[in-house]
Design brief:
There is one protein chain. The protein is of the alpha+beta class. The chain is 40% helix and 21% strand. Bound molecules: ligand 28G. Ligand 28G binds next to α3, β2 and β6.
Length: 637
């Protein structure tokens, strides 16, 4: 039974009630992302305890009843009584912002939404059960219905071990979904394990009877090997670390036989997807050091210009992980994904300069291989620039006339880019129907003939020579590769419209690979969509009812009774009106927005699926036969 509330406990409940009234202010959202945020909060605390030197193993368990348990073997949360008559444990779970901040915790995340603490989890849970082992006792406390204490702190028995165990059941009255996603969890936890190179992180999936364990004593080196598993690399990962004025800098880099540059930066374990001062510092330190080295070795002569950053980083994968004390933390941008801390630039730059120069001098073979690759990149870029200039002189065609030249694009009439849509349509016949039925004011149609080039291992030069991709680049009008600028896009939505069969899926993947490699920001800023044509039409009288999957077909049959069922094998089988009604009309269609939930997971998946090592691809398909579109994409209208 609940205790009677005294004045202070009413105040506390008001605090937790505030979290329930505006959950978004504390955990960002009440969708799947917000749900997992609860787990990250509890996990963060367990990780802090381990990083402070207490405990070496953390377990996350998904229970069959839909609850989730986190276990650490640290010191155990404090259980002593406060002067207020409450236990420290109760305070941690019922007072906002208490218990979330550790005084020693250099790893405490202040970036974005992390660090709001166990009380927020309590407020948003149907129940929370806490067990603490310390001082040879097993303590237990339980809260229900958004943080109401069920009984005072009790002692269950004696023990010799220490640690904390927290089980919570997210409240379905708060969250739009309360199902944890195992892939989201393992990806997040594996990433933290790579970055921490400390505790062993275990995930037990009791719903599917599976267990995963992540422990990487080699930290960033292991992370890099994982990311580049499918690439032909030029050398082993290079890793270095140094702490300057309280900022702990950890860096790994590795060159591969590819053209893309990939940089993954983290601050206090949180991804800084929009970069910031640490990335700027890395880039300038890296470019400068490579140039200094090349000159000192006579690889760059006096008359030669310095290598440019873009050429230096061709084929380079970098991981930057900084631990910054809370008082120096500054984040910028709308999603707080950009590090502001000015000091981080100089600190990162000087760590890179010092350690990289040392590495190059100690590893002459690797250093020469790297410089030769950069020289090749410089020459290729120069040649491409010259060729382009020649072409421009010869033809003098601007963006617009090039587009007309391509002939295939049926552009929209309006010049209000924020309302325009570009449909990339599989095949000329569907393209023809789409041109007929579209809203020509706002919708542009570009039919694609046959398969699109696989760009996973193509250079920007190959891409520009490819007619199909070149047309897409010019239609979108914002450049590609290093020159891509999302501010210049001609369309608000780029919509991939293919048949609902394996060929269509293949074309989708090829286009997404192209966007991921050459216009990543286009995806990151939410401009890429996939159209979903129906699989069936049920005709009854004058009406046609459309079904987008088998379940829906059954539902429709149940509802309307007998009718003629038509199976659409492709877009081409629909007439222009049907195509408009089912797939293109903004009022009735369903578009799937493509998102990059986790960039590192995505990076690896794209290189595994689209790269050169067929064996990895087979393994991946074997492991992921239950892969569904819905899990990776978010549905919008
Ligand atoms: C299992 C799921 C999540 C935690 C600890 C351990 C201590 C602690 C946690 O202290 C901050 C410290 C004292 C007021 C600290 C234990 C010092 C001595 C701790 C966790 C502020 C809270 N003994 N383990 N919090 N106190 N594990 N796992 O949350 O001064 S939270």
């Amino acid at each position: 039974m609940s205790e009677r509330y005294d004045a202070t406990s009413i105040k506390i409940l008001e605090g937790l009630e505030a979290v329930r009234v505006r959950p978004g202010m504390y955990i960002g959202s009440v969708d799947s992302r917000g749900l997992h945020h609860l787990l990250w909060e509890i996990l963060d605390n367990a990780i802090d305890e381990a990083m402070n030197g207490y405990g070496k193993e953390i377990t996350v368990r998904l229970n069959q009843d839909g609850s989730c348990t986190v276990i650490d073997n640290g010191r155990g949360m404090p259980c002593d009584m406060h002067s207020s008559g409450k236990s420290a444990l109760e305070v941690i779970f019922t007072v906002l912002h208490a218990g979330g901040k550790f005084e020693e915790g250099a790893y405490k995340t202040a970036g974005g939404l992390h660090g709001v603490g166990a009380s927020v989890v309590n407020a948003l849970s149907e129940w929370v059960d806490v067990e603490v082992c310390r001082d040879h006792k097993r303590y237990h406390i339980r809260f229900e219905d958004g943080g109401k204490k069920v009984h005072p702190l009790e002692i269950l028995g004696t023990t010799n071990r220490t640690g904390s165990k927290v089980t919570f059941k997210p409240d379905p009255k708060i969250f739009s979904t309360t199902t944890f996603n195992i892939e989201t969890i393992t990806t997040h936890i594996q990433q933290e394990a790579f970055l921490l190179s400390g505790p062993r992180l275990i995930v037990k999936d009791d719903i599917n009877g599976k267990e995963y364990s992540y422990e990487y004593p080699e930290g960033l080196k292991a992370f890099m090997e994982y990311l580049n598993e499918d690439k032909d690399t030029l050398h082993d990962p290079v890793v270095f670390s140094k702490t300057i004025s309280g900022i702990d800098v950890n860096i790994a880099f590795q060159f591969a036989d590819t053209y893309q540059e990939n940089m993954f930066s983290f601050v206090n374990l949180v991804r800084t997807k929009d970069g910031g001062s640490h990335e700027v510092g890395f880039k300038s330190g890296f470019t400068k050091t490579i140039n200094d080295y090349a000159r000192s070795e006579g690889l760059l002569k006096e008359k030669d210009k310095n290598f440019e950053g873009n050429d230096v980083r061709e084929g380079l994968t970098t991981i930057i992980s900084l631990a910054i004390p809370e008082d120096k933390l500054q984040f910028e941008g709308q999603t707080k994904g950009k590090l502001g801390t000015p000091e981080a630039k100089n600190v990162t730059e000087s760590v890179v300069s010092e350690k990289l120069m040392y590495f190059l001098k100690e590893n002459k073979d690797i250093a020469y291989t790297i410089v030769k690759k950069i020289q090749k990149a410089t020459i290729a870029r120069e040649a491409a620039r010259k060729a382009k200039e020649e072409a421009r002189k010869g033809k003098k065609n601007d963006k617009k006339s090039e587009r007309v030249l391509s002939g295939k694009l049926a552009d929209a009439q309006s010049r209000d880019h924020s309302k325009l849509e570009l449909f990339l349509v599989e095949g000329d016949s569907a393209g023809g129907s789409a041109k007929k039925c579209r809203d020509s004011k706002y919708q542009a149609i570009l039919p694609l003939r046959g398969k699109v080039l696989n760009t996973e291992r193509a250079s920007i030069d190959d891409v520009e020579k490819n007619e199909e991709l070149n047309t897409i680049i010019h239609a979108i009008g914002a450049g590609a590769g290093a020159n891509f600028n999302v501010a210049d896009i001609n369309y608000d939505k780029v919509i991939i419209m293919t048949d609902a069969d394996t060929d269509g899926a293949h074309i989708q993947v090829l286009l997404l690979t192209f966007f991921y490699r050459y216009m990543r920001e286009l995806i990151e800023t939410g401009h890429v969509y996939i159209a979903t044509p129906p699989l069936y039409g049920v005709i009854k009288g004058k009406e046609t009812y459309y079904a987008y999957d088998d379940d829906e077909l059954e539902r429709i049959k149940d509802e309307i009774g007998k009718g003629e069922v038509k199976r659409y094998k492709g877009l081409g089988e629909m007439n222009a009106d049907e195509l408009w009604d089912t797939t293109m009309d903004p009022h009735s269609r369903t578009l799937v927005q493509v998102t990059l939930e986790d960039a590192t997971a995505c990076e690896r998946r794209v290189s595994v699926l689209m790269g050169s090592k067929a064996e990895l691809r087979r393994d991946w398909i074997d492991e992921n036969i239950d892969f569904t579109l819905e899990e990776d994409y978010q549905v919008t209208n």
